[in-house]
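Model: You mentioned two targets. I'll fold them one after the other.
Researcher: Yes, keep them separate.
Model: Target one:
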Amino acid sequence: MKTKSWIVTLSSLALLLALSGYASSSTVGPAWRPMASATMAWAPASVATSAAGCTVAITEPRPGQEVAGRTDAAGKATLPPNYHLWLFARRVSYRPLELWWPQGEAVVEQGTWKMPVSIGAPEEIGGEFDVTAAVFDQEQHLKLREHFRNEAFRPDYQPIEMPAATCVAGTLTVKKTRQ
């Protein structure tokens, strides 16, 4: 089955958001993601395309999948030179705060990537978590890398706001059923 993407100008965005019930200008729902240009693309929730020449899609885990505390995420991506793919996870309760725990940089080889993602703390079995992937330019990548190196392995690792991304895969939600 072919997947079609439509480009929607920002002048049409307000009408589309109003019709779809999205009222917040900072959170435009799981299938809409800001891009580097003055356009936005609609695609299935796990795919994003950018005018800057990047694409990113998450193929695993699947939305609604039951997962362990450490699970593999995988997908497909096309990156411009000097751009980097990062994975993020968060508890669904952090959606209103727009905070994420960076999981690290995924290596893209021949258009595919795979890396482990940490899903919550041991006591959070039964909880729902969001997972996404995003592409960053060199400047944002270096900031993420510095934060990750300094904070990720601390027992009190705190979430951050996701830096400005070139393209972001749609957010998918999984359920943690085991450690």
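Model: Target two:
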Amino acid sequence: MIINRLQREESDKIFTIVRNVAGATMAVGSAVEWTTTSPDGVRVSQPTTGGLSLFAGVLVEALTDSQYGKIQVHNYLASALVTNNTSVAIVAGDILVPVNAAYHLARSAASTGTSGFIFAGEAVATATTPAAALKKVFLKNL
């Protein structure tokens, strides 16, 4: 783990090193999951239906296939890929979850505020055509 030095002007953040084994480049802000194929606590890939609970963190740098890099696992992050919806807006504080076969996060339908690892840090309006964009989030994935 990499923990940045404490500073008054910036919140503490915790990162960990991962290896992209998805077979393709992952962009900055991508939500990734730990892979269960040869698990080693380093390999990550695109979220899948069976692995959504294996959320690892959000990439803070782009990674080509087989490259090592950093994900953020704790506290404020200004650039995570979040997708909007056609009917329900995201409100700051809503629980966000990884999405199957995608690198973005979406609003949890059961957004009660009582559980979750990822929270929206800003509002995201509805759209006729939903699209992922870099948005502010809070991570509590320790």
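Researcher: Noted. Anything on target two?
Model: Residues 2-73 form one domain.
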